[in-house]
UniProtKB/TrEMBL annotation:
SUPFAM superfamilies: P-loop containing nucleoside triphosphate hydrolases
Entry keyword Manganese: no
Underlying gene: cobS
Top enzyme category: ligase
The species this protein was found in: Neptunomonas japonica JAMM 1380
Gene3D superfamilies with a match to the protein in the record: P-loop containing nucleotide triphosphate hydrolases
Name of protein: Cobaltochelatase CobS
Cobaltochelatase subunit CobS N-terminal domain mapped to chain residues: 8-37
Length: 332
């Protein structure tokens, strides 16, 4: 990983111009991009409340957790704020394979002057602490207990981190920032939707200065995102089609909230559906392949009814023949 050239923010960014929020606020930013700064997604739609919470994290060194259902763009939201501030950003997914050694570091054997020697290789946490970097812990509620206690140390106000193996105390860089995303709010997996999530130690939850919730976007904003991702839909016919797709997605979300079905369509799934329509040339075929086949068999008739209501079209069983016909015509 390369070192960062600029050590401190050396400019400011207008929140109104960069994020479209009606405020005169300006926030610190870097004038130059680093290799670790995320790429700007010009199609991204910012949620004003969540954006202001994340900006507070960057400008005032607040520990910010973004909570919400899957596919709402929680991690991407933080990355896109960082992208517009030119703030270096590193994202870690706390799946079951991430261990304490991955975060803290471990002894490794290297060759030096033709001899094998043991040398400590620091993990991502001490590396990030020394730099003006935003560290994002993804799927925070899925972290293993030993990993979570490592993170708890840097959630303190001073955030000092002790490398016991090296007898070294690391003082965080003044521009180090810490964020997390979570599907739950630390109370565990009560719905059965997010297997592998854990109850978070409430003493640790208390150390997060700001907890904000990112819900699904309004229809108009979701339409803009899909049309930006799939430009062929950026016309009157495409607008009608996309609105019907989002109407189906909203029905699944409302039914999920009511406990009628166990799977919902996230914006990510709707985008996949739109992209698959370009491949298969049929919304029904693409719907089956993008979402319906992921659903519980007992729930599929209800979800098929959602499609029928919004598209005035039955989901026929001959979809496989249609798909194979489209693919063969593409090849010829």
């Amino acid at each position: 990983m390369s070192d960062i050239k600029i050590d401190q923010p050396d400019t400011t960014v207008s929140v109104r111009e960069a994020f479209g929020i009606d405020t005169d606020l300006r926030v610190p930013a870097f004038s130059e991009r680093d290799d670790h700064v995320p790429e700007i997604d010009t199609a991204y739609q910012f949620n004003p409340e969540v954006t202001l919470a994340i900006l507070a994290g960057f400008s005032r060194d607040r520990r910010v957790m973004v909570q919400g259902l899957h596919g709402t763009g929680k991690s991407t939201h933080i990355e896109q704020v960082a992208a517009r501030l030119n703030w270096p950003c590193v994202r870690i997914n706390l799946d079951g394979h991430i261990s304490r050694l991955d975060l803290v570091g471990k002894d490794t054997i290297i060759l030096r002057d033709g001899k094998q020697v043991t040398e400590f290789q620091e993990g991502i946490v001490p590396w990030a602490l020394r730099r003006p970097t935003a560290l994002i812990f993804d799927e925070f509620d899925a972290g293993r207990p030993d990993v979570m206690f490592v993170i708890q140390r840097i959630l303190e106000r001073d955030g000092k981190f002790t490398l016991l193996d090296q007898n070294e105390v690391i003082h965080p860089h003044k521009q180090f920032r810490l964020f997390a995303t979570s599907n739950t709010i630390g109370l565990g997996n009560s719905t059965g939707l997010y297997h592998g999530t854990q109850m978070i130690n409430q003493a640790q939850m208390d150390r997060w200065n700001i907890v904000t919730t990112l819900n699904y976007l309004p229809t108009d904003d979701e339409v803009k995102i899909i049309q930006a991702r799939v430009p062929n839909f950026d016309n009157d016919a495409g607008l009608t089609l996309v609105k019907s797709m989002i109407a189906v997605a909203d029905m699944t979300r409302n039914s999920f909230a009511a406990g009628d079905i166990s799977t919902l369509m996230s914006p990510r799934t709707v985008i996949s559906w739109a992209e698959n329509i370009e491949i298969f040339r049929d919304p029904a075929v693409a719907f089956r392949l993008s979402f319906l086949n992921k659903c519980d068999e007992a729930e599929r008739p209800m979800i098929a009814e959602f499609f029928q209501r919004c598209f005035d079209q039955e989901l026929t069983e001959s979809w496989a023949h249609k798909a194979s016909g489209v693919m063969s015509s593409e090849q010829h």
